[in-house]
Amino acid sequence: MTATYRYLPDTKQDQEEMLSFLGISSTDELFEDIPPEIRLKGELNIPAAIPEPQLLKKMHELASQNKNANQYPTFLGAGTYDHYIPSVVNHMISRSEFYTAYTPYQPEISQGELQAIFEFQTMVCELTGMDVANSSMYDGFTSLAEAASLAVASTKRSKVLISKAVHPESRAIINPVSAGQGYTVEEVDLAADVTDLVKLQEQIDQDTAAVIVQYPNFFGSIEDLAEMKKTTEANGALFIVSANPLALALLQAPGKLGADIVIGDMQPLGIPMSFGGPHCGYFAVHKKFMRKIPGRIVGQTKDEQGKRGFVLTLQAREQHIRRDKATSNICSNQALNALASSVCMTALGKQGVRHMAQLNIEKADYMAKRLQEKGFMIMNQSPFFNEFVVELPRPVKEVNAKLLEAGMIGGFDLGSDYGFDNQMLIAVTEQRTKEEIDQFVEVLEASVNG
Amino acid sequence: MTKATASLLYSEDHEWVLQLGGNRVRIGISDYAQDQLGDIVFVENAEMDDKVTANETMGTIESVKTASELYSPVSGTVVGVNDSLGDAPETINEQPYEAGWLIEVEMSNPEELEALLSEDEYKEFVSEGDV
Amino acid sequence: MVEYNELIFEISRPGRIGSSLPESDVDKIDLYDKLPKHLIRDVQAELPEVSELQLVRHYTALSNKNHGIDNGFYPLGSCTMKYNPKINEDVARFEGFSRIHPYQPEETVQGALQLLHELQEELAEITGMDAVTLQPSAGAQGEWTGLMMVKAYLEQKGETRTKVLVPDSAHGTNPASATVAGFKTVTIPSNENGLVDLEELKKHVDHDTAALMLTNPNTLGLFEKDIVEIAKVVHEAGGLLYYDGANANAILGKTTPGKMGFDIVHLNLHKTFTTPHGGGGPGAGPVGVKKKLIPYLPVPRVEKDGEKYVLNSDHPRSIGRVKGYYGNFGILVRAYTYIRTMGPEGLRQVSESAVLHANYLRKKLEPYFEAPYSQVCKHEFVLSGSKQKKLGVRTLDMAKRLLDFGYHPPTIYFPLNVEECLMIEPTETESKETLDAFAEVMIQIAKEVENNPGVVLEAPHTTVIGRLDEVQAARQPILRYTKEKAAEREVVKS
């Protein structure tokens, strides 16, 4: 073994010195405790090593086989959005003091990360109107499942109601989670584009741990949380709201409308789409659940000299301590993406976040109006944020093929998840220009006739 | 360190029981238990009128290091709760047998007291280690 | 140099902005025309207001208070803090990977699907498994995914087994994942050599045993030599074997969990495959399985259909989805790039070097610290601070003293079955000079404990902040910034 790989520094001489210090002649002797019958005889059957220049070329080629949002304006949303990310975000998260660090278990040399998380927690509390937020979770979908588990554990009830207007993947993921933990999940049907409040009334009972809704919901419509809170509270269940953090810049904070737990994904604020991950779940609660919140949380304290500092706190319930008594097995967060989101929120700032949200609502509204002018039916009966549903005269797949020919990525087909054939969910973010929107409408119009 | 009073009974889960007359008892955790836990930061205590069952969970106690279940040594109804622990959980570290008590219970089955350990038996139980 | 101790909120001034968005090119909307009043935000979110340079200075100052692998040696046992290659970071940021939407038509993401498919196959080869899912976001989610597959597999066979066996040296996530998956955990004690006690194991394995979860090499860094026999015992009772891949850095190209007899494996790409830990995430925890468990893998699965790559959800016995979309794609891109960089010989040398380094460092330190298991280790080893404890210095104090020398301390107080434990994992990417320098500092600290314990007890001396009051943090939690709490701080300052 000599230093032929740039990540492996041992020279032949280094290796010989270490072997001789150990009194052995080959590294093979260090593997003699592996029984011979289970040792690999030859090398692994994987492709050979590639030098950096060729590898870069190869990876560029692979990447270029994907149509990215820079070349193909995208009108896909459905939980992941193409938003403006200030250049400064990538520069800050590329500071390797942040990205090559482990979880901040040694606070004296991790104050940077700890303070950044403390600031992230504060920003999440501000947007959601909640008292306490954790340092982040895997993604919005798993945050939702963890919220349901918290509700079941703290109410000691065994049924969770989830609106059908919640993202289909959230509703899919909660199934194996509930199966593992032994509670049941019932879906509450739709009344047009929002949760059916009458059905909610019928289904809720004294065994209901929580009601889960999305805000804005999967169809972009803004649910009336105030009405739902009344029903939920009357039955002693917890009210869980999954919210798009960008929309919260303009919409009333769920905390002010009675939410007990607010969860969601920070992806719209500073995190690239990346084919669906990594994104960054957030998790915020009313203060009465402060000590039940899963995952890691940072608190402010002082050192021996009285100087302000930050530490991981409320750790006693974490899996590495509680082991089989833990109520969640999560032992990481998405620290780097939480940092990206903090930097993005800081760059946009108090005014910029509102401005961005306003652009989204205006552009979606413009596009919906243009489509209506052309005779298309918009299915949303409630006000919507940056997404809405349009009915097409032919299958979404066919229309999307036309859009692709015209150099655009079309919307989400509601056929397979909802059985709403020929209905397309369209997202319009601030990234889409008036020209792109007009062109999209033209292609849709042409597809009616073509 | 505070001294235990001789009339206390103990469970193997390190709770002590003080008989207050009639079927009423006061419950806390032993000095040994508080010492093992270290700095106590939070107690999730039972609430007034809760029913508790012998050897079943009646709450949890958290230190920086760990969170542990509290097991009731007797069955009955909670008739008193030490609310001061909310703001000052460290009282349990400082005075486990006095101001650091947890709850008072009106026992439904006083015979359960017979299963508990005496002061000397508990001392021996603790000194055996591996508890 | 003046110390910077501000929160971003404390340098915020109304009217400043750190980004630029265009004005609207479509008609303006008055929210009050569109929404009922009670759904319109009444109090604005108090986000920071700073210029772009202020932002950059703030986060740069924070980064200067953080220690990463790029700053110095990071021998944190069980975490495999190896070098995070820069090419991986560049590639993950290519627009063809970072700006693609998960619901784009399959024909527009063939490059991404090809990458996922090839990575699945390569990880299957590396672990000796028959198929791999890339969905789980982290090791813990991988464990849970694996156990849910065990459950589904047993149910299909008409069996309900409730027990998952876990050695006492296991990572805390093992029992936690078992509980969350609805199993009961039974702890198996280790023997005096730090290995699974075969006789104890036999006592606990029965018709109610769903699975044994094992890390091999285990958390003491020791290879479970009896693994073939262990696998036989569990399989004969109808149970399955789960491999916790946290320590896979010791076995690349040398053996595979498949050969050892395991049925399910998770890998931590942020450990063995160089993806950055990111200060706590994101990571990725792919799960590999043997043939009999393939039908239960999460959907959608990435498959090859002729020359085309497709996402297939048509697997009726699947446990369903465990993660949104297809996993942490950006992390998977990095791991793929790393495997391509190293190739088969390179990966084998990774493990050979990692194990050589651990043994070299172990032998250098053993004369100065109690070594509870003095035998050949794999990629990591444990020492005990019991000798030093008798002199009044705890392992925690020695860990804090290491900070003064610019080192991140080893993992401490884990595994639980070693008193005052120090768990050291040097990794293959460190040079011999670094190992020698670290050994010298450890030896110096051992001598200080004997001659000048005060300097260790009062450590750290050089960090930006001293030891923090964790008790106060937990008793009266302050978990977010508020103006009132900031005022309290002013009092402290004066």
From TrEMBL, chain A:
Quote any Pfam family the record assigns: GDC-P
Alphabetically, the GO molecular function entries are:
glycine dehydrogenase (decarboxylating) activity
UniProt name for this protein = Probable glycine dehydrogenase (decarboxylating) subunit 1
Keyword Ligase included in the entry's annotation? no
Q: Which InterPro entries match?
A: GcvPA (IPR023010), GDC-P_N (IPR049315), GDC_P (IPR020581), PyrdxlP-dep_Trfase (IPR015424), PyrdxlP-dep_Trfase_major (IPR015421), PyrdxlP-dep_Trfase_small (IPR015422)
Q: Which UniProt keywords apply?
A: Oxidoreductase
Assembly and interaction partners: The glycine cleavage system is composed of four proteins: P, T, L and H. In this organism, the P 'protein' is a heterodimer of two subunits.
Q: Top EC class per UniProt?
A: oxidoreductase
Name the family the entry cites: Belongs to the GcvP family. N-terminal subunit subfamily.
Reaction catalysed by this chain?
Answer: N(6)-[(R)-lipoyl]-L-lysyl-[glycine-cleavage complex H protein] + glycine + H(+) = N(6)-[(R)-S(8)-aminomethyldihydrolipoyl]-L-lysyl-[glycine-cleavage complex H protein] + CO2
In this chain the Glycine cleavage system P-protein N-terminal domain maps to 6-444
**What are its E.C. numbers?**
1.4.4.2
Q: Does the keyword Acetylation apply?
A: no
From TrEMBL, chain B:
Name the encoding gene, please.
Answer: gcvH
Q: Which organism is it from?
A: Bacillus aerolatus
**Domain Lipoyl-binding residue range list:** 24-106
CDD domains (alphabetical): GCS_H
Into which family does the record put it?
Answer: Belongs to the GcvH family.
Tell me, which GO biological process terms does this entry list?
glycine decarboxylation via glycine cleavage system; protein lipoylation
Cofactor names:
(R)-lipoate
Q: How does it assemble?
A: The glycine cleavage system is composed of four proteins: P, T, L and H.
GO cellular component assignments:
cytosol; glycine cleavage complex
**N6-lipoyllysine found at:** K65
Does tRNA processing count among this protein's keywords? no
Primary role: Is also involved in protein lipoylation via its role as an octanoyl/lipoyl carrier protein intermediate. The glycine cleavage system catalyzes the degradation of glycine. The H protein shuttles the methylamine group of glycine from the P protein to the T protein.
Name listed for the protein in its UniProt record:
Glycine cleavage system H protein
Cofactor binding mode, per the note?
A: Binds 1 lipoyl cofactor covalently.
Q: Which UniProt keywords apply?
A: Lipoyl
From TrEMBL, chain C:
Described function: The glycine cleavage system catalyzes the degradation of glycine. The P protein binds the alpha-amino group of glycine through its pyridoxal phosphate cofactor; CO(2) is released and the remaining methylamine moiety is then transferred to the lipoamide cofactor of the H protein.
Q: Which proteins does it associate with, and in what oligomeric form?
A: The glycine cleavage system is composed of four proteins: P, T, L and H. In this organism, the P 'protein' is a heterodimer of two subunits.
List the EC numbers from the record: 1.4.4.2
All copies of the Glycine cleavage system P-protein N-terminal domain together span 33-298
Reaction equations catalysed? N(6)-[(R)-lipoyl]-L-lysyl-[glycine-cleavage complex H protein] + glycine + H(+) = N(6)-[(R)-S(8)-aminomethyldihydrolipoyl]-L-lysyl-[glycine-cleavage complex H protein] + CO2
Q: Which CDD domains match?
A: GDC-P (cd00613)
- Which protein, by its recorded name, is this? Probable glycine dehydrogenase (decarboxylating) subunit 2
State the Gene Ontology BP annotations.
glycine decarboxylation via glycine cleavage system
Q: Which InterPro entries match?
A: GcvPB, GDC-P_C, GDC-P_N, GDC_P, PyrdxlP-dep_Trfase, PyrdxlP-dep_Trfase_major, PyrdxlP-dep_Trfase_small
Q: Which PANTHER family match?
A: GLYCINE DEHYDROGENASE (DECARBOXYLATING), MITOCHONDRIAL (PTHR11773:SF1), GLYCINE DEHYDROGENASE, DECARBOXYLATING (PTHR11773)
Q: Please verify whether the record's keywords include GTP-binding.
A: no
- The encoding gene is gcvPB
Q: Which organism is it from?
A: Bacillus aerolatus
Pfam families from the UniProt entry = GcvP2_C (PF21478), GDC-P (PF02347)
